[in-house]
Q: What sequence folds into this?
């Protein structure tokens, strides 16, 4: 290995060491901001969804209904479904949290987040921890890779008993049916998952059904952080 390559490697190690402090800083800020928010529901979905779209309007209605149950709302803090989630919480006078990610092509955070509950993250993995820690449920609207990432991470953590179980509700059967068929016809049939793993989430189409799933799961009304 040449001297130049060795020097570059040591420089990389130094950068990694400093990254540890940046990660710790993100966690400290997030924990300090969110530890007193009370029980919340995290809502996910596409940043590309426009305000006139039915998914946006449905998300606003779902968010309002969730606030009426006594929960706050956590979103990714950006536009689209994230904005709709925060908008519903804002209009219902509920807690409205935004966990915004810094991206080169990402728009600014939406205007419906409580001013003292907007957190900007550099790292996706620290942000994902905060989505899970204080959530008493996940509501998953139609979305892309990021939405799928959050969905699969949640069911993996519950499946492996790394976090307390909570309801995971996919909204929009027409959108999710293809994925469900693949899970059943490929993963389940080939033994990659068990039949009870399919019960880790449910699929609905209306705000009323979402509320029913949340209420059914949390009958005892006992809430706490997931880890």
A:
């Amino acid at each position: 290995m040449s001297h130049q390559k060795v020097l570059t490697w040591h420089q990389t190690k130094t950068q990694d060491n400093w990254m540890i402090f940046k990660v710790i800083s993100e966690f400290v800020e997030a924990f300090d901001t969110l530890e007193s928010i009370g029980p919340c529901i995290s809502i996910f979905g596409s940043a590309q969804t426009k305000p006139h779209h039915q998914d946006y309007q449905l998300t606003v209605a779902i968010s309002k209904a969730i606030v009426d149950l006594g929960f706050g709302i956590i979103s990714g803090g950006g536009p689209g479904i994230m904005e709709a989630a925060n908008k519903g919480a804002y209009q219902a006078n509920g807690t409205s949290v935004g966990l915004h990610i810094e991206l080169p092509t990402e728009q600014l955070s939406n205007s419906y987040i409580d001013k003292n509950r907007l957190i900007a993250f550099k790292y996706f993995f620290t942000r994902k921890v905060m989505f899970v820690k204080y959530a008493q449920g996940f509501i998953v609207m139609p979305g892309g890779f990021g939405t799928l990432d959050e969905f699969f991470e949640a069911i993996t953590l519950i499946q492996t008993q790394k976090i307390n179980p909570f309801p995971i509700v996919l909204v929009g059967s027409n959108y999710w049916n293809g994925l469900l068929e693949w899970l059943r016809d490929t993963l389940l049939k080939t033994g990659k998952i068990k039949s009870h793993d399919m019960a880790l989430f449910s699929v609905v189409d209306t705000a009323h059904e979402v509320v029913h799933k949340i209420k059914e799961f949390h009958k005892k009304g006992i809430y706490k952080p997931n880890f």
